C-alpha cells in the first residue's frame, strides 16, 4: 500500500470537532491511499518498529484488523477480506468476494455495513495479553480497542470520510464471516465511506 502520511490539511482539533457517527454512505469507492491511511491510523507503525499509532498495555498488541472490501468498494482492490499486516503496512488477501450481506446478517441486519464500501473489523486475542496481565486482560484490551476505534473516527474525519462503531453482532457469526482464527474475538465492526453530505 502507499506509505501513510503523518501530516494533513485538517488539524486534530477540527477532526475532533467534526467527528460524528454516520450510518449512510454514498457508493463512491475508496482510493487505496485512503484505505492505507485508515489502516495505519488503527495499528500502523510509528517511528521505531516497536511503536504503533495506538497504545497497548505492555506493547503486546493483541489486536487484529480485517478489511472487508465491498463490490466496487475500492478503486484498486477486488471485493474480499484482507488482513492488515502492520509491520509491512500491507494487506494479505484472505477470501475473495463481497461479504457485506453476510456481515450485515451477523450484525443483526445493520444496513450501514451493507452500503459502506469498506468495513474494518477490530478483533483481539485475549491470551496474548492474559499471559502478562491476567485478571486485568479484558480491561486493557477493551481500552486498546477503544483507542483504535477513536483513531479511526478521527482519521476518517480528517479524510472527509465517515464511520460508525458497531458493537451489536453475533460473535460467532462475525468470526466465521471475517475468517478470523478461533482465538480472535471480534470487538468492533466499523463501516467507512463517503457521507452523503460531503462531496
UniProtKB/TrEMBL annotation:
Residues 16-194 form the Nitroreductase domain. It holds the Pfam family Nitroreductase. InterPro entries: Bacteriocin_Proc_Enz (IPR052544), Nitroreductase (IPR029479), Nitroreductase-like (IPR000415), SagB-type_dehydrogenase (IPR020051). Gene3D superfamilies: NADH Oxidase. GO terms for molecular function: oxidoreductase activity. It comes from the Bacteria. NCBIfam families: antibiot_sagB. PANTHER family: NITROREDUCTASE MJ1384-RELATED (PTHR43745). This is SagB/ThcOx family dehydrogenase. It comes from Dehalogenimonas sp. 4OHTPN.
